[in-house]
Write a structure and sequence with these properties.
The protein has helices at 8-26, 34-41, 45-53, 67-77, 93-100, 103-106, 137-143, 155-168, 194-211; strands at 31-32, 65-66, 84-89, 109-116, 125-126, 129-133, 148-151, 172-175, 188-191. With 212 residues, it is α/β, with parallel strands linked by helices. It is globular. Bound molecules: 1,4-dihydronicotinamide adenine dinucleotide.
Length: 212
């Protein structure tokens, strides 16, 4: 299906649709109306219809949405109908926690390697994956078709390591280091800052208290 340019706001909401639809699918539910989705997801039914209309409208009047079809279409739009091979750079607290989190694999993100520059960590296994020295990356990335790198290293190290990774052919960086990376066109960066979400929570708590 041909897609028109979709706004980042809609793209940002798709993983949530995907997650809920996945749950409905797992429960064996075959179809769902925008109203039912709205009740589960706490988003208005009109927002749901508007969002899903971006893709040519999967719904049918009086029938609702076919759960499996919609789940697969959204997965395809998000590019997770295919597998992504990733590596984690930085085998510290966060890198290890991510490596141990199996659920990414269910979504098609396969952790193939973990790298660090601390020789004490070389050879240590995290969920069966050995930590390797940074020098091995140059060969490892093309040989294993790695397209995503997860950066869980200190912010002062991130720019240099990102540059290196891009030279080896990485196409996407999931960046946890608190620094904005400059990357060439064709390379995508997704920054994750857990503290942003915490600050949003704090804001909403204060707003609620001030409103009372
Ligand atoms: P950590 O100190 O436990 O682990 C960092 C690891 O990176 C260590 O194993 C270290 O040897 C390795 N490392 C350092 N320089 C390197 C280099 N040039 N090449 C390869 N490996 C290198 O730290 P932690 O707690 O795991 O945090 C990692 C990073 O993630 C920090 O920058 C931290 O600020 C950030 N962070 C970000 C969060 C977010 O929400 N974005 C949440 C938690 C941490």
């Amino acid at each position: 299906m041909e897609e028109k340019e979709i706004s980042q706001a809609v793209i940002g909401r798709l993983p949530r649709y995907f997650r809920y639809l996945g749950e409905l699918k797992d429960e064996g539910i075959e179809r769902v109306s925008s109203q039912e989705l709205s009740d589960i997801m706490q988003v208005t039914a009109s927002q749901i219809r508007q969002d899903l209309n971006n893709f040519g409208g999967f719904g049918q009047q009086g029938y609702g949405y076919n759960v499996e079809f919609l789940y697969e279409e959204i997965g395809r739009i998000l590019g997770i109908d295919r597998k992504h091979n990733l590596i984690i750079i930085g085998a510290g607290n966060l890198g290890q926690a991510l490596a141990n989190y199996m659920n990414f694999e269910r979504r098609g993100f396969l952790c193939k390697g973990i790298f660090d520059n601390n020789p004490k960590l070389y050879g240590r296994k995290i969920r069966g994956i050995e930590v390797q020295p940074m020098e091995s990356m140059e060969r490892f990335v093309p040989e294993n078709n790695i397209d995503i790198a997860v950066l869980t290293i200190p912010k002062g190290e991130a720019a240099g390591v990102a540059e290196e990774l891009i030279r080896y052919g990485i196409k996407g960086i999931w960046n946890f280091a608190h620094v904005d990376l400059k990357v060439p066109e064709g390379v995508q960066v997704e920054n994750v800052h857990l503290s942003d979400s915490l600050m949003k929570l704090s804001y909403n708590i204060s707003r609620f208290q001030n409103d009372k």
